[in-house]
Amino acid sequence: MKKLFLYILPLISLLWVGCEEKVIDIDPGLTEKKPVVMARVEADSTVSIRLTYSRFFLDTHPFAEIDNATVNLSVNGAPTTAAMTRLGGNYSIAYVPQPGDRLELRVLVPGCDEPITAETTVPSSPVVSAAQVSQGTDNAGSPVFNIRFRLTDNAASQDYYSIRLRSIDTLIHTHNINEYSTVVVSDTTPRDMYMSFTCNDVMLTDNTNLSLDMNLDGSTPMNWLPFSDELISGTAHDITISIYRDTAGTANTGGGTAGTYVDIYQHTIPKLYLEVTSYSYDRYLYELTLSSYDGDMLSAMFTEPVQIHTNVQGGIGIFAASSRSVQQLQMNE
Amino acid sequence: MKGRLLILLLLIAPLWLQAQTVSGTVTDAATGETLMGATILDEITGKGTITNAYGRYTLTLHADTAYLRVSYIGYKPQHFTVSLKGNHELNVSLKPTVELDEVTVTADRVNSPRTSQMSAVELPIEHLKMVPVMFGESDVLKTLQLLPGVQSGTEGTSGIYVRGGGPDENLFLLDGIPLYNVNHLGGFFSAFNSDAVKNVTLYKGSFPARFNGRISSVLDITTNNGNDREWHGGASIGLLAGKLSIEGPIIKEKTTVSLSFRRTYADLLMKSPLSMAVALFSKNNVNAGYYFYDLNGKVTHKFSERSRLYATFYSGDDGVYLGAKISESDYGMMSFKTNMNLSYTWGNLATALRWNYVLNPKLFMNITGSYTQYRNNLEFGLDFEEHLGDDFLSAAMTSTYNSGIRDISLNADFDYAPVPEHSIKFGTHYTHHIFTPEVTGGKNSYSSTDTSYSHDTIIGQSIVHAEEISLFVEDDWNLTDALKVNAGLAATGFLVEGRFYPSLQPRLSARFLITEDLSLKAGYSYMTQYMHFLSSSNISLPTDLWVPVTARIAPMNSHQVAAGVFYSWFGVADFSVEGYYKWMHNLMEYLPGSSFFGSSTRWEDKVCLGDGKAYGIEFLAQRTVGKFTGWLGYTWSRTWRMFDMLNNGEPFPAKYDRIHDVSISMQYKHSKRFDCGLTWVFSTGNTATLAMQEFETDTQTENGIMGYVSNAAGFVDSRNNYRLPNYHRLDISANFHRFFKRGYRTISISIYNVYNQQNPFIIYKSNLHSYTAADGTVYGSALVQRSLFPIIPSIAYIRKF
Asked: Which residues of B touch A57 (CB under 8 A)?
């Protein structure tokens, strides 16, 4: 046994010393920054474009803005004469795109030999029936709100959508700060609300008919779930979304205690907004890949890599359009 | 039409009527072990054949007399004059060569210039035992990785990637039984104990029609039958594992048994140090460890020279266990205790009953019934106990996760040699698959002084049954003295969830003999695979599992063409150059962002299907005879994948796309008492997907470590866009033998990675280092690599008796 230890100890030492970290030399070509175009073009809104430079992944400096670019927008093949304003790397063009418009972007950045180009076509607005809200109970007898609406897909085209529910209304509620005292918080600032809802729709669950829990998102669009019309092409499809009273999640209540559970029955949620959005194909791929992206180094070791979709020639980024249908829903009638 | 058939029959009939058959079995004279691949050659007509997997041969000749030469590598050839007045039974026992200090071990019988088979290699077990190894454990798969066209995965692992295929596209047959898990210790060891192995043949292309079910390779491993004359055994101790083997006659020259057992003892050695270490910091008890074992058993009974029965058994498991007393408090009247147990085991169980029967001298039959299973069991338990005076309360919770696959098979194979020009194999294989992708169970129990209850839950019990059937026929046909063709056809079908997937798979290989030692060969094969392995590309996880094709997930298939030149230089050295091109369809990859963890219930949502192509050229030069043997192999190859859902639909290189791959394996047998070996490998680095640039998004994304949120996202211009540094390594070994009256002992010393090359195992961004770019810019972090195996010396002691 003594001899065995005499053998094992040097071996462990060798492993320790021999497996040290080693810095990898990187091809200089990979460190060069690239121009980035970021423009989610919305129908019926002016066109906003943000221009920045990318940075080498070891660089921790803020992204540099491109504030000296020449930006040209063409609509259906003709240069637009709409006024353009610029603030830092943010460019705003006073043109309001309409469904069916074909937009072409051409950006000249000093120092770049080639122009940066991108194009998109504004999709038609989604055809959505008036949503109906009802209260009911689930299989376990718990109360739920059911939001039901009909999405009619165009058979002649391949379409892409997303559905979003949000509440940006005044939130006034009571909640427990701790187990000994109750404090009434009057909060008149729009706040993020996160609540679980379930949608058994085949489009959202990719034909598996299983429940999918998502966040009911107040402001950030991180949890949108874009989907294609592959399964409903050319049909009128009814969608039901259920919001569960008992699964109301954490809310940043503004009272100093983020992460407190809130029961949506105990305070007022007068309105929710149902947004159904049509995407162009590039926009669909961008939203889909962005929602899959996880830059966390630890979890990335156990997930497949994600290429965030880009449709910008000569650079990185997205220039892609969408059209939105928005309805206001009263929840507690 | 009928008239033409009659004329044809009349023309052929005389040939059949005049043909006489010599048949029999070739065995080792010392042990009675049947010899697979022995050559039987009629030196008068030049016609010949080789023995099948059971040592059986059939040679049909148009002659009155045959002068037969029976030979096998490492054995003295024997000559026989046979009068062919009728069918003749000739059983041959060959004696091993006595010049033990010379070896002829690397001869490649299945791929010689004379055979019609190409893209196949036979790995002699003698060679396997001389190749330098890691931790003193000779390994079939790691030795195969040294051959052209066969690549390894991550360093140190035994997964094989054959001609651009994935690790799940290889059919591993142990005595004809498929094995679904061929790795131990996360892939650092293969499941094949070299002590139990008799023959190893790898088919990389030009697949014979009798092999089906995988699209990239077939590894056919035969185990020892056992000595039918006397008892022998052996024991060995390596750095990580020990082995025991025994073989001998239960009834002399009738019934033999062969048993081999291997187990790691790292967990046993580390048990005490681990417990001591934990005891230093707390009062808690911890019992943790990892082990693997495999047990090979085989019983052979010879009813007569015409009838033999084989019973094969294999069991191999890996296990991780952790038992801990989390807390214990005793305050006299009141006491608490909490225990936790974790157990994770996975492995194979395989067994087969095989009956060989010689129906007549021209027709050999092999009937096999087999059962094989791969299982994956995870169990976690937590229990709590509280005593307060006479009152008590206890609660326990157990969670289980099980997955696996079970196959029940029945095969009938026939060898038929009606005329000298034809050697026909035909048969049918049927398999009933039972897939258990995921069964999760939970059990809760509670008891106290007044009450008790327990609750069992089983969810996700989604067992899928599937039937797979194949019919095949292949003919090794001597068209002329120069031209030989192996033509075959396999008809397969897979029935799952009411859906039937049929497949007709033609196979063809041809040899044109330019001279006695020089030939050209070409081949084509079409293969279909009806199951996929859901696994991460880097590491083994409990969620890795086999799944069948479904209505959404179609079967994989591949077309492969290959051509090559084969030359044997005076029987001393062989040279070959082979080129291949392979198209693969319905390959499966995880979708971007899919996590390898989590439920498998919706696995179809996490994957996408696409195509692949692979092409390359392989050079092999090997010296087969003499004190100094070995080979030099070089492969130039590319492997691409094309998926609509990945890389914007553009082709991208596969993870293990290695453009250059060189391997040198040399052995020198100095004397009966000493031999040594050297292996050097070089390959282009693996590919990886790295975001070398970051860009600002208008959305916050998780970034950095532990969910830090920012508006930066990595930009990946192309999947697998980064090429890791090249890989190279030198291993050496020396074996010192000492012979006794009964048996011998060997001390084997080997050094893995002699010059301590820091080959990358994992790369990541580290804030502990800085990086100075070529333009002088200094960054506060760096891209770093960590290696897994530095220089590793090891020693093994082997005793045979």
From this structure: 690-694, 714, 765
Residue B780's region, left for phi above 0, alpha for psi from -120 to 50, else beta, is: alpha
Please give the Cα distance from B142 to B594 (Å, whole number).
Answer: 30
Burial annotation A213-228 (CB, 10 A radius, 16+ → b, else e) = ebbbbbeebeebbbbb
List chain A residues with pLDDT less than 70. 1-20, 140, 142-143, 166-225, 244-271, 295-302, 331-333
Determine the topology of domain B120-686+724-800 in CATH.
Maltoporin; Chain A (2.40.170)
DSSP secondary structure, B191-234, as one string: S--GGGEEEEEEE-SS--TT--S-SSEEEEEEE----SSS-EEE
Using CA atoms of A165, A166, A169, A171 in order, give the dihedral in degrees to the nearest 10.
100
| CATH 3.90.320 assigned to A31-121 | no
d(Cα B606, Cα A6) in Å, to the nearest integer?
49
Considering chain B, what is the average pLDDT of its residues?
84
Q: CB of B601 within 8 Å of any CB in chain A?
A: yes
Give residue limits of the domains in chain B. 16-94, 120-686+724-800
* pLDDT: which is higher, A16 or B643: B643
From the list B711, B637, B576, B489, the residue with the least C-alpha distance to B108 is: B576
What are the structure tokens assigned to A129, written together?
């029936």
| Bridge partners for A238 per DSSP | A150
R_g over Cα of chain A: 25
Tell which of A24, A63, A215 to mutate to test the B interface (max B CBs under 10 Å). A24
Q: Are B121 and B201 in contact (CB under 8 A)?
A: yes
* Tens digits of residue pLDDT in B663-708: 999 989 888 899 999 999 999 998 888 888 999 987 655 444 434 4
Beta strands in B417-462 (DSSP E): 422-448, 452-459
CA distances from A300 to B258, B342, B706, B736 (A): 47, 26, 11, 48
Classify domain A127-281 at the CATH class level.
mainly beta
Q: What are the DSSP E strand ranges found in B266-362?
A: 286-304, 307-330, 334-360
Per-domain boundaries in chain A: 31-121, 127-281
What was the pLDDT predicted at B104?
44
Q: Are strands B150-152 and B160-162 parallel, antiparallel or unpaired?
A: antiparallel
Are residues B127 and B667 in contact, defined by beta-carbon separation less than 8 angstroms?
A: yes
The pLDDT tens digits of the residues spanning B466-520 come to 999 999 999 999 898 889 999 999 999 999 988 999 999 999 999 999 988 899 9
- Which residues pair with residue A53 across a beta bridge? A35
A223 touches chain B (CB under 8 A): no
Mean pLDDT, rounded, for B278-293: 71
Instruction: Return contacts of A50-53, CB within 8 angstroms, 24+ apart.
Output: A50/A89, A50/A90, A50/A91, A50/B696, A50/B698, A51/A89, A51/A91, A51/A107, A51/A109, A52/A89, A52/B695, A52/B696
Query: What is the token pair recorded at B355?
Result: 């009956």
- How is domain B16-94 classified at the architecture level of CATH? Sandwich (2.60)
Instruction: Give the tens place of pLDDT for each residue, B424-475.
Output: 999 999 999 999 877 777 777 777 777 777 776 666 557 889 999 999 999 9
In angstroms, rounded to a whole number, what is the distance separating the alpha carbons of residues B85 and B64? Answer: 6
Torsion of CA B334, B335, B336, B341, to 10 degrees: -160
Tokens of residue B304, six digits: 């007569």
Nearest to A55 among B694, B719, B765 (CB): B694
Residue numbers in B near A26 (CB within 8 A): 692, 771, 773, 783
Residue to substitute from A27, A208, A302, interface B, most B β-carbons within 10 A: A302
Query: Looking at this predicted complex, what is its ipTM?
Result: 0.79
